[in-house]
Amino acid sequence: EPTVRTELMEQIPPIAIFLQESRPKFPTAFFEYLMPIVVRYLTDVNNQVRKAGQEALLILLEQDLIAQSDIENKVCPILLDLSAPDSDDEYKVEAVNIICKMASMLSRTTVEHMLLPRFCELCSDGKLFQVRKICAANFGDVCNAVGQEATERLLIPKFFELCSDSVWGMRKACAECFMAVSYTTSPEVRRSKLSPLFISLISDTCRWVRQAAFQSLGPFISTFANPSSAGLYIREDGTLSIRPSTQDVNSNSCQPSNNITLMSSSTNAT
To answer: Which GO terms describe its cellular component (predicted)?
Structure first.
C-alpha cells in the first residue's frame, strides 16, 4: 500500500538520527538498511511516496547523516538518471527540483563535478518549460554553491539564455534572483555583462518582468558596493543585510557612511 510506504519514509529521518546517536551500537545499520530504501523510493511509482522520499532525503542531507561516498555513488547517479533527456516528464521535474535544493547542502566539489553539468543541460531543456523555470528560480543558489569561477565560466551563459527565454515567467524568475547571481561574480563581469542584461529586463515587454526587475534594482546596485566599507553581506537565507561597524556598535549612534558608500557605488556603476 502506498500509504504504508509514505508513512515509512516519514519515519526514516528520526530513525537515522537515533542510529547516528547510537553509532557504537549500530555502526552500519543506516547505510546497509535505510539508505537503500530512500534511494529506491525516489523512483517509486506512486507520487506521494516519491515526495515523501524526496523530503526524507533533504532532511537527511541537511542533518549531515549521509556519507559523502553514498551521496556520490548512490544519490547523485539516481538523480542524474531521473533528469536525463529521455526521462519521464514528471520524474525529470522532481529530479531537477531536488538537484537545486541539494546544491547548497553538498560540497562545492561534488556539486561542480557531478551535478553542475546536468544543471546546465536542464537550463536549456526545450521540452519542458517547468524544468527551465525551476532552474531559473534556483539559479542564485546554484551560483553560490559552485563559486565565482564556475559561475562565470559555465553558468553566466546559461543565465543569459534564461533571461531571454520566450516564456515571461522565466525572465521574471531571473529578475528575482539577479542580486544573488551578481553577488557571486567579479566586479568586471557585474559591470560589463550583468548590467546590460539587467537593463534588458527593466525594459522587458512584459510588465510582470519589469516589475520584478525594478524590485531587484536596489539589491542589484548594492552588489557594486565595497563589502568591507559598506558592510553588506548575504545571509544564509539569501537576503541582503548590513553588518554594523565596530564604531557604530560602540557609539550606539547612527552613521550615514553605509548609505553614502552605496550611493557612490551605484553612481559609479552607471
So the answer is: cytoplasm
Cell triple for residue 264? 557612490
Given CA atoms 104, 102, 193, 178 in this order, what sign does their dihedral have?
negative
153: left (phi over 0), alpha (psi -120 to 50) or beta: alpha
Three cell numbers written together for 172:
521574471
pLDDT digits (tens, 9 = 90+) for 184-232: 999 999 999 999 999 999 999 999 999 999 999 998 998 887 655 445 5
Predicted TM-score of the model (pTM): 0.78
Task: Report CA-CA distances (Å) from 134 to 138, 203, 262, 266.
Answer: 6, 23, 32, 30
Question: Sign of torsion, CA 223 235 96 146?
Answer: positive
**Dihedral angle computed from the Cα positions of residues 100, 103, 109 and 112, in that order, rounded to the nearest 10 degrees:** 20
Burial class of residue 139 (count of CB atoms within 10 Å of its CB; 0-12, 13-18, 19+): buried
Q: Name the grid cell of 234.
A: 548575504
